[in-house]
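Quick one, tokens below. Sequence please?
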């Protein structure tokens, strides 16, 4: 298989490869619709925040619409972010086994074509953002600064996962901005907890490329922690649970939210116990399992919001 039909090495056998028209496949791969896990992980803090803010407000009438808009926005903006990442990383991607078959280094899409596609996705995201109040709109726009600088961080710091955490956790602020028109201590603690979670799961993800990254000089927490990764994960995952727990206290959350947090914590412990950093396939599976961890917490927050509003 060649040209636009050729699959990406670490994303084969998906609906994009088997069902999408050949002309659309490079663009769908740029937006990672063949690998939606990142969109789910971007969405989780949005849904956590929306549910927790609805519980604080004691009213859930707008919650279904907010959750739906966040769903659309997360998938669109993650696609835009990945397109930007692929544009800036095209030379590095060409030197890494797992990423050299991505659309730009593989020659399926030119940089100008990718740039146009980036603008289209960003405009779609803006259309979603404009459905919210002015404070939420400005809050959402502010996140673009972090998204723009993230791809360059792995060239200059061993901690690019912190910047990814700042970007991927922004939704923890958005739910409060949309529902309550403010960002308070509860939202900031939820945001901080989500950042710690992202640092943990993206460290697991980065272990897939640790050897190639060492050869080309790309930095990551996976390379920084190395054999100490299990201990580092225990710290960051523990911090995530602690900070989110304090957010629940400030929000006056009820027992369903705490059950959700306990299930979330148990899942993170399972990941640490299961992890073998020398097994890239296992690292990928554990990384992907964080969607389920996030959904467990969201379920608890959602049930709590419904109970508090009744």
């Amino acid at each position: 298989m060649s040209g636009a039909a050729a699959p990406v090495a670490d994303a084969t056998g998906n609906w994009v490869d088997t069902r999408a028209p050949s002309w659309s496949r490079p663009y769908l791969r740029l937006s990672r619709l063949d690998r939606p896990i990142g969109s789910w992980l971007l969405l989780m803090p949005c849904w956590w925040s929306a549910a927790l803010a609805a519980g604080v407000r004691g009213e859930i009438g707008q919650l279904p619409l907010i959750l739906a808009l966040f769903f659309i926005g997360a998938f669109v903006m993650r696609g835009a972010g990945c397109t930007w990442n692929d544009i800036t990383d095209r030379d590095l991607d060409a030197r890494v086994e797992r990423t050299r078959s991505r659309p730009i280094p593989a020659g399926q899409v030119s940089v100008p074509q990718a740039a146009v596609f980036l603008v289209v996705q960003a405009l779609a995201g803006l259309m979603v953002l404009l459905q919210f109040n002015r404070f939420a709109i400005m809050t959402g726009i502010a996140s673009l600064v972090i998204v723009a600088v993230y791809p360059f961080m792995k060239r200059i710091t061993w901690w690019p996962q912190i910047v990814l955490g700042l970007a991927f956790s922004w939704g923890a602020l958005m739910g409060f901005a949309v529902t309550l028109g403010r960002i308070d201590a509860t939202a900031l603690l939820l945001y901080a907890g989500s950042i710690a979670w992202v640092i943990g799961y993206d460290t697991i993800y980065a272990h897939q490329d640790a050897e190639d990254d060492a050869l080309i000089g790309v930095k990551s927490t996976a390379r920084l922690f190395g054999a100490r990764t299990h201990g580092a994960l225990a710290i960051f995952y523990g911090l995530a649970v602690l900070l989110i727990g304090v957010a629940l206290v400030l929000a006056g959350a009820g027992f369903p939210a705490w059950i959700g947090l306990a299930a979330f914590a148990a899942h993170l412990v399972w990941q640490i116990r299961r992890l073998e950093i020398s097994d890239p396939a296992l690292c990928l599976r554990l990384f992907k399992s964080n969607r389920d961890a996030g959904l467990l917490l969201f379920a608890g927050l959602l049930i709590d919001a419904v109970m508090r509003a009744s």
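The longest helix spans residues 63-88. The mean pLDDT is 93.
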